[in-house]
Amino acid sequence: MVKVMVYPPTSMILSDLVERMGHEALVISKEVRKKINTPGLDSPPLNITPEDTKRGLRYAAVDVPSGVRGRMALIGPMIEMADAAIMVQGGGCNLGCAGCERTNELAGFLLRTKKIPILEMRYPEDETEAKWFVRKIREFLEGLE
Amino acid sequence: MRVTKFVVTSQDSEVLPSDIAQMIYGSGHDVDVKETCFGVMIDGEEKEIDEVVKGIRAMDPSGIFIKDRGFPPGDPRRCRGHRGGGARPGFYMIEYESKILPLISKGLAADAGGDEEEPPTEKAEWLSSDKLEAIIKKEFS
C-alpha cells in the first residue's frame, strides 16, 4: 500500500479512486480529524496554534501571507509523507483548504521537486475524457509498488 | 480511533441513501448513520467502518463514492443547525464533484468492462501572442 497525495486535497473523486485501488489517500480531512481529536482546541481547524505557524514556516517564509502558512501547516506534512501524487487541474470549485492559488502553486512545486511519481490531469468534461481519466488513474495506481 | 466518512451516490445510481442506511442497519455493525441529501454519513470505529465500506461499495461499484470527513456528524462546529443555516464549509466541493460523478461512473463501468477508450482529442488552446502576431503580419503585409 502506497501513500498517495491527491490534489485538490479535498477531492472526493480522487480519494475514492485511490482507496478503491487499495492505496492510502492523503487528504486534508484526515489532517483536520487529528486536530479535532487534539484536546484544547476550541474550533479547529480555524484555531491556529503556535506550533502550526512554526510548522508552516518550514514551507513558506515569514513574509508569505498567513493564509499560505496556515494551509501549509496542514498540507506540508502530507507532502512529506507522500510516496506518489495525483494532481488534477481545472476544478470549477476551489474553496476552503484548496481556495488559495498561491498555496496550490507551492504545494504543486514541492510535490514536483520531491521526485516522486506524479500524475497530472484535468477534470473530465465529457464521457470520453472521463473514461480516459479513470483509466489513466488506474494504470498509474497499478504501477505503484 | 473513530472515523467519519461521506458516502455519496451518483445521480444515475439506482441506490438511494435510504437503501444504504437500511443495509448498514441490517448488517449489525456498530456504526452511526445519518442520511443527507447527497448520500449518508457514517461514523464509527475504523475497523467497523472498513467492513461497512466494503458492503456499501458492493451495492453499486461504479455509482457510489466515499471520502473521509474530519468532523463527526452533527458536530456543533460544522452542523448548520448550530450555525444558523447555510451550506456547511466543504459542501461546495462535494456539490461540484457530484455534478461530474455520472461521468466518472461511466468511466469506472467502462474500465471494469475492459473498454479500450481512445485518448480524447487535444482541445484548442489559447492563441499565443506570437501566433497572433504572425497572423496579423500575414493578413496585412
Structure explained in plain terms:
The complex is a heterodimer of chains A (145) and B (141). By secondary structure, chain A is α/β, with parallel strands linked by helices. Chain A is built from 6 helices and 4 strands. In chain A, 48% of the residues lie in helices and 13% in strands. Chain A has a 4-stranded parallel beta sheet, sandwiched between helices. Chain A is globular, with a radius of gyration of 16 Å. The mean pLDDT of chain A is 87. With 141 residues, chain B is α+β, with helices and mostly antiparallel strands. In chain B, helix 1 packs across helix 2. The mean pLDDT of chain B is 88. The interface between A and B is large, with 42 and 38 residues.
What layout of secondary structure does this protein have?
The complex is a heterodimer of chains A (145) and B (141).
Chain A: E1 3-7, H1 12-20, E2 24-26, H2 28-36, H3 50-56, H4 66-81, E3 84-89, H5 101-113, E4 118-122, H6 127-142
Parallel strand pairs in A: 1-2, 1-3, 3-4
Helix pairs in contact in A: 3-4, 4-5
Chain B: E1 2-9, H1 17-27, E2 32-35, E3 39-45, H2 46-59, E4 64-69, H3 80-83, H4 91-99, H5 101-112, H6 129-140
Antiparallel strand pairs in B: 1-3, 1-4, 2-3
